[in-house]
Specification:
Strand order of the largest sheet: 1-2-3-4-5-6-7-8
Strand content: 5-15%
Shape: globular
Radius of gyration: 18 Å
Structural class: alpha/beta
Distance between the termini: 27 Å
Number of helices: 11
Largest sheet: 8 strands, parallel, barrel
Order of helices and strands: EHEHEHEHEHEHEHEHHHH
Helix content: 40-55%
């Protein structure tokens, strides 16, 4: 099942030419693998996916997929192919499939106000993808799923699971209803403050962006829950919660990449119009991370 256990929504290393470049982040991927991570998602929100042009992602995806499989034999690579429209999403899915990914993640279309039928037709068209499709519910950036589309999309055989980043327990419950009718349908939680709650409700896995900085904590949360050690699982959730205020320094991927750069793992460069951290923010970031040193991904891991 592609969406089970822990999936790290990986950042995208960027080279001097401003394009995705594996060489700018090989130590980062090595550190993830050394931490025990087996599944990654490329070009998601943490991967700045929509900011990278379809025409430039192919070489990076081919290298990244091959590199990850070399680091983690049997490792899983999912590629987010979400875009404003269906044709662009399908074009990105074709590039991702040619690169050798295991599955693609696809959100509803964005930018325009789309009704339920638009969303359903968007996913029906994704049957043309050469690899399985994982629905990606991220209402902060794309049209939200409601009960009707959840039922319709959940009934499509080529859609094998959901990554739900809504943080809405009612929406998660509706996806779990799909799973009850389709036991092979995977349900994954992306809302970082509700990871343990989702596992307890029946989710198969988690995709926390903070796992870029503390992958072992995310792995421990799932392992402890699976082992029935709810006290240790709750402690891991609290450790994740304590890390989340890092985004008060600067929301989103710029602060994550800056932290990885401070640890010698990845270029801090971000895709425009995103901006790298300024000197004051970097000082605040160093001070914040100092309290988490034993838990953080590090150069010593590669």
């Amino acid at each position: 099942m592609f969406v089970s256990d822990v999936i790290v929504p990986a950042v995208t290393p960027i080279g001097a030419d401003g394009r995705p470049d594996l060489a700018a982040g090989t130590r980062y991927f090595g550190a993830l693998a050394a931490s025990g991570v087996e599944k990654i998602m490329l070009l998601g929100t943490n991967g700045e996916g929509p900011l990278h042009q379809t025409t430039e992602i192919g070489p990076f995806l081919r290298e990244a997929v091959a590199h990850w499989r070399g680091l983690v034999p049997g490792g899983v690579v999912i590629v987010n192919v979400s875009a404003a429209g269906t044709r662009e999403s399908l074009a990105r899915a074709e590039v991702a499939a040619e690169a050798g990914c295991d599955a693609v993640a696809l959100s509803p279309p964005c930018y325009f106000r789309h009704d339920e039928r638009d969303i359903v037709e968007h996913y029906r068209a994704s049957r043309a993808a050469a690899v399985p499709v994982i629905a990606y519910n991220i209402p902060r950036y794309a049209a939200p799923f409601s009960a009707g589309p959840i039922a319709s999309v959940g009934d499509m055989e080529h859609v094998v699971g959901i990554k739900d980043s809504s943080g809405d327990p009612d929406i998660l419950r509706r996806w779990l209803d799909v799973k009850r009718d389709r036991p092979d349908f995977g349900v994954n939680q992306g809302a970082e403050g509700a990871l343990l709650d989702a596992l307890a409700a029946g989710a198969d896995g988690i995709t926390p962006g903070i796992a870029n900085l503390a992958p072992r904590v995310a792995l421990e949360l799932v392992a402890a829950y699976r082992a029935g050690d709810l006290e240790r699982a709750a402690l891991a959730q609290k450790r994740i919660d304590r890390l989340l205020p890092v985004h008060r320094i600067r929301p989103g991927v710029p602060v994550v990449k800056a932290a990885l750069a401070l640890r010698g793992l990845c270029s801090a460069a971000v895709a425009p119009p995103l901006r790298t951290l300024n000197d004051g923010e970097l000082t605040a970031l160093r001070d914040f991370l100092a309290g988490f040193e034993p838990e953080l991904i590090g150069a010593a891991d590669d």
